[in-house]
Specification:
It contains 33 helices and 14 strands. The protein folds into six domains: about 90 residues, no CATH class; about 80 residues, no CATH class; about 50 residues, no CATH class; about 170 residues, Nucleotidyltransferase, domain 5, CATH 3.30.420; about 140 residues, no CATH class; about 120 residues, no CATH class. It has a five-stranded mixed beta sheet with strand order 8-7-6-9-10, sandwiched between helices. Helix 13 packs antiparallel against helix 20 and helix 13 runs antiparallel to helix 22. By secondary structure, it is α+β, with helices and mostly antiparallel strands. This is DUF7963 domain-containing protein. It comes from Prunus persica. InterPro entries: DUF7963, RNaseH-like_sf.
């Protein structure tokens, strides 16, 4: 029976792998928190504390996550960054912290906690106890000076008459403004109450400016510094395409920030005019130069299957994959709703000719998320040198839909889970009991997830998967609900309650649920790896073989017949299969295998007879008729002699990825380079190999976020507006590909919130630490509320 305490884990992982993943996840979470903090979205101390991942020297697996002080190189435990900052930085343990805060000065900085909250009643009480507190608006000194305004007693109400009505007037001079120089002068209150203090401070500040008009607050920057800062700011704005609107530049607080640091205000017309055109021309020229330098390329088209918030318009992105592993953004095309296969074919071909003009043979092929196979196939037939493949990511995701459609087990589990979830959510007594036990066990409430009635679960299994995951995570809670006395009373009168209760207490229900959940999780996990690694087409056959092995293990674990499962997998494999998979697998030196004689030979023994024929057919199609027999002779030589063992071993050198911990090719480009150098005697076959083995098997190189689509929806009826949006998308996509950042902002934020337990622990520590820390946070909370 399934575990009732937690979501099932992958049984193929060892305890060391699980621990390594947890450490990597915590390290990534701390790095994400620190990155956001450095950008001004988190705690101050992350500027001085740096997460480090310590590895075991023998196994190279992570063994601990630590925090390193960048000021003195001290290393601490990463379990509680807030406490580390308090004990090491704020208490003076770090010898270099004070000098960093105020260089060339021995005066300690004024703590943030000394700033009062204008709307906090509790802080007002503390201010009256602490005495003089600097006004958050005034820059006046705390003592009486020649610039202080001497407030005449006739403009005030005497304290003796007023203190009985307002307690705050009894506190000594809260803004540090002298009311009299006489020793026996009584404290007076302002007629407008506490809110007059800010106005009075502003008045004093105006007097100061009149006395010394040449002094200006804020930073003083040179023209070069201002130009450089504005250039960086504009690039950030362009690269955050859609996430930040033009109207945000007119926000008063953003303008105040620019003024505070000594920068002029950025105007909308400036960012949407000449500066945007100049940046676009610069990025466009750089992209075109990279494409010109390459002898050939592959076009990747993604977005034909994506959904968008507009309902009608859709954005399809085009990238250019170069042999050296670099991907260059080309353009974004806006299409309307459902388009025909002929239209998709025309758009794809226009992209090819737009890149290379009449030299169309430079395009080695196209990879696209499969809109219509006919479009890719027609272009391949018309241009014999091209290899057009559908995206493997879409193939694996579609396999889940195939299982849901063709396996009765999926239908039974889905129906049973819908019955359980709907009954628990809709029956008030059961719902209250469920929320009570969920709060006790998981410390948060909420109903079970249920797919929307409008959702077609036969085409979209994601909502069903979320429901299965939610029910599995609440297995123990549901069993507690069924054993509750109130549920037993309901079962007497409601037959559905009795049926649901029987399912929840049935071992078969949980075993079937875990089986379906595990299979979908297995395929989704492989799909995520495909999306992250972006494999080449030579990896396709090993990927599908890996899937078959995992599915067989799954069948054995849950005692399920292999026949129907294998039938679904093979059907999807045949639909996605392309002869180039087999040819690239044979021609890529990284898959060479050492035989008993010591030679490194291509792995023909792993191909079926039909796949061997596919290799011959594809190679003869990619060369001219005159060269076909030469290519086949060279293929036979490659099959019998292979490659020099020393070069073969050099190509297959692997190293451990520091992020995932997996072994990967040390130099992925070496597979192609050996064909152009040490295998130059196989000239005809080599021309085919270098064009074939660099081709990508996925089209997911750049992800558009919803902001892109929103901007497109807003400006799609304006030629000028749409042109500006396209330029900004081009700049943003170029920057993301330059950083090799293939994710989008929504996924990053979702991942960050999913690992928010690190920050939650920090906040828990802060709020339970001491009352003075709450005083530190009050001004920040007040500012957030005002914003």
């Amino acid at each position: 029976m399934a575990s009732t305490n937690s979501t099932p884990t992958d049984p193929s992982l060892s305890q060391d792998d699980i621990a390594a993943r947890a450490l990597n996840k915590r390290y990534d979470s701390l790095v994400t928190v620190r990155t956001k903090a450095i950008k001004g979205k988190g705690a101050w101390y992350w500027a001085h504390l740096e997460p480090i991942l310590i590895r075991n020297p023998n196994t190279n697996l992570p063994k601990a996550v630590k925090l390193k002080c960048s000021l003195c190189d001290a290393v601490f435990s990463a379990s509680n960054p807030s406490r580390t900052a308090s004990e090491h930085l704020k208490r003076g343990t770090c010898p270099n912290f004070a000098s960093v805060l105020r260089p060339n000065s021995s005066v300690s900085p004024v703590p943030i906690s000394s700033l009062p909250s204008p709307s906090s009643h509790n802080h007002r009480k503390r201010s009256s106890q602490m005495g003089t507190v600097p006004c958050p608006i005034s820059h006046a000194p705390h003592h009486t000076s020649s610039t202080s305004i001497q407030v005449h007693s006739l403009a005030m109400i005497e304290s003796s008459r007023y203190c009985g009505e307002h307690n705050y007037s009894q506190s000594p001079n809260p803004v540090g403004i002298a009311t009299s120089t006489g020793p026996n002068q009584q404290h007076v209150g302002l007629s407008g109450g506490k809110h007059d203090l800010g106005a009075l401070a502003m008045l004093e500040n105006s007097v100061k400016k009149l006395k010394s008009p040449k002094t200006s607050p804020g930073a003083t920057l040179s023209k070069e510094q201002i130009d450089s800062a504005l250039e960086l700011l504009s690039e950030w704005f362009y690269e955050s395409c859609g996430s930040v609107s033009f109207s945000s530049l007119e926000h008063p607080k953003f303008r105040a920030f620019l003024n505070q640091v000594g920068l002029p205000a950025l105007l909308q017309r400036e960012l949407s005019g000449a500066r945007l055109d100049a940046k676009f021309d610069e990025v466009k020229a750089e992209s075109e130069a990279r494409i010109r330098d390459a002898m050939f390329f592959q076009v990747a088209s993604d977005g034909w299957k994506s959904k968008n918030p507009c309902g009608e318009e859709n954005m399809v992105t085009f990238m250019v994959n170069l042999p050296n592993g670099i991907s260059v953004f080309q353009k974004a095309v806006f299409t309307g709703g459902s388009v025909s296969s002929k239209y998709a074919e025309e758009v794809l071909w226009d992209s090819v000719t737009g890149i290379c003009g009449n030299a169309v043979q430079r395009c080695a092929g196209i990879v696209a998320d499969k809109y219509k196979a006919k479009a890719l196939r027609n272009l391949e037939i018309q241009n014999h040198w091209m290899v057009n493949v559908s995206c493997q990511l879409q193939g694996f995701i579609t396999l889940i839909k195939d299982f849901n459609k063709e396996l009765p087990l999926f239908r039974v589990v889905t129906e049973n889970c819908l019955k359980v979830a709907n009954f628990v959510n809709s029956t008030s007594e059961v719902r209250h009991a469920f929320e009570k036990y969920k709060m006790q066990e998981l410390e948060y409430a909420g109903l079970l997830q249920v797919p929307s009635p409008k959702c077609d679960t036969s085409k979209n299994f994601a909502p069903v998967y979320a429901m299965l995951e939610d029910i599995l995570s609440c297995a123990r809670i549901l069993q507690m609900v069924v054993l509750d006395d109130c549920y037993k009373v309901i079962c007497v009168e409601d037959p559905i309650a009795k049926e649901v209760g029987g399912m929840i207490q049935s071992e078969g229900f949980w075993n079937e649920l875990e089986a379906v959940y595990s299979l979908v999780k297995l395929i989704r996990g492989m799909a995520q790896e495909i999306e992250a690694e972006r494999p080449l087409i030579g990896r396709c056959l090993p990927l599908w073989e890996e899937l078959r092995t995992k599915v067989k293990d799954w069948c054995a674990k849950f005692s399920i017949a292999e026949g129907p499962i294998e039938k679904v997998v093979e059907k999807r494999f045949r639909k996605n299969y392309h002869p180039a998979w087999s040819a690239a697998f044979i021609l890529d030196p990284q898959y060479l295998m050492r035989d008993t004689s010591g030679k490194y030979l291509p792995p023909f023994k792993f191909l079926t007879h039909e796949q061997e024929k596919d290799v011959d057919k594809l190679i003869t199609r990619l060369v001219s008729r005159e060269e076909a027999h030469v290519a086949l002779m060279e293929l036979m030589k490659w099959r019998t002699e292979g490659m020099d063992p020393l070069y073969a071993q050099a190509v297959q050198v692997k190293q451990r990825d520091p992020v995932t911990g997996k072994m990967k090719m040390a130099n992925p480009q070496s597979s192609r380079l050996v064909w152009e150098t040490c295998l130059s005697e196989l000239k005809t076959l080599g021309r085919v190999a270098v064009r074939l083995i660099f081709l990508h098997a996925t089209s997911c190189g750049f992800k558009c976020n919803w902001s892109f689509m929103k901007w497109m929806c807003v400006h799609r009826h304006s030629r000028v507006g749409l042109e500006r949006v396209q330029k900004m998308i081009f700049i943003a996509a170029h920057a993301k590909l330059e950083r090799r950042d293939l994710s989008n902002e929504e996924e990053k934020e979702a991942e960050l919130f999913a690992t928010a337990d690190v920050e939650d622990d920090m906040l828990t520590e802060v709020f339970s630490d001491a009352p003075t820390v709450m005083g530190l946070l009050e001004p920040v909370v007040w500012m957030a509320n005002q914003a």
